[in-house]
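Lab meeting, item 3. Inverse folding demo.
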């Protein structure tokens, strides 16, 4: 399997020269590889059925969950903009320091919102979990323990990493084959900022944000608030996972460089599908948080080793 992935990556680098003989040999292989991945995805989909999923520990009802999603996104943006105004930063600044200042302002606002909701849902009837419309009358199993969910999130990430990256590699190969530019190593604007900065302290702060704070906030916003608002409103599990994954991928468009747009969106959508499934499979948000943190960490490691 690893050897096949290496061949896909080699095909992606060689295909930029139409005169090479490797292009002709790698192209059929890529098509076959993509077909194999699709077949594997179908098999995995059958294995990922959620008919016997446990109840979810998420306590907010549909309205409160949607309010949390909107508050995290709107107030996060407002907090970032305000911190930029306070420190006199230009809105179009591309320096790592300025981005961190604005990110810190947004993070503080989001943390306040999240803490408020987490504390409030324990005693306010407004935030009480409502019954899911159309839910089965048969009681579901209890949510997994936090430790089980955390370990399961790690295991699922390890299993899913290679297939996910393989699909992204095929998308890159197709992009080049159809006349597009090969995606750069720095496919994410955050990586560009890290590459261009010489300040070790700033780099360390950004790494902490990427592998710790971002997964927590994004998972509470998407797999928690958005996905569970739709579930509490009675929508089927997989419909909510797909809808949430689409929104998750779309909001990352501004931070992807144009050449990496196709492969980046593909990877983010597949990642989000897995994270949404983890939320439903375990009934705990700690599972997608852990998998998301591992995804960001491994991408950072690959970026620095490239």
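The presenter then showed the designed sequence:
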């Amino acid at each position: 399997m690893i050897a096949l992935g290496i061949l896909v990556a080699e095909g992606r680098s060689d295909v930029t020269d139409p005169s090479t003989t490797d292009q002709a040999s790698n192209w059929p292989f890529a098509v076959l590889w993509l077909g194999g991945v699709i077949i594997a995805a179908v098999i995995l989909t059958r294995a990922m059925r959620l008919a016997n999923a446990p109840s979810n520990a998420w306590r907010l009802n549909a309205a409160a969950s949607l309010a949390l999603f909107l508050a995290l996104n709107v107030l996060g943006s407002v907090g970032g903009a305000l911190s930029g105004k306070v420190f006199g930063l230009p809105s179009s600044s591309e320096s790592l320091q300025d981005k961190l200042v604005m990110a810190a302002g947004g993070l503080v606002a989001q943390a306040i919102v999240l803490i408020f909701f987490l504390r409030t849902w324990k005693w306010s009837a407004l935030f009480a979990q409502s019954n899911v419309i159309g839910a089965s009358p048969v009681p579901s199993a209890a949510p997994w323990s936090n430790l089980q969910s955390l370990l399961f999130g790690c295991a699922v990430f390890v299993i899913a990493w290679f297939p996910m990256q393989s699909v992204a590699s095929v998308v890159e190969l197709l992009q080049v084959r159809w006349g597009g530019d090969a995606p750069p190593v720095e496919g994410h604007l955050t990586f560009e900022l890290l590459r261009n900065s010489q300040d070790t302290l700033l780099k360390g702060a950004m790494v902490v944000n990427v592998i710790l704070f971002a997964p927590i906030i994004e998972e509470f916003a998407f797999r928690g608030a958005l996905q569970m608002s739709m579930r509490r409103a009675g929508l089927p599990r997989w419909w909510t996972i797909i809808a949430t994954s689409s929104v998750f991928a779309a909001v990352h468009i501004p931070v992807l460089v144009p050449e990496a747009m196709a492969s980046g969106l593909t990877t983010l959508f597949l990642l989000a599908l897995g994270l949404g499934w983890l939320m439903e499979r375990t009934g705990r948000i700690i599972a997608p948080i852990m998998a998301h943190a591992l995804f960001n960490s491994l991408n950072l490691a690959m970026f620095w080793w490239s």
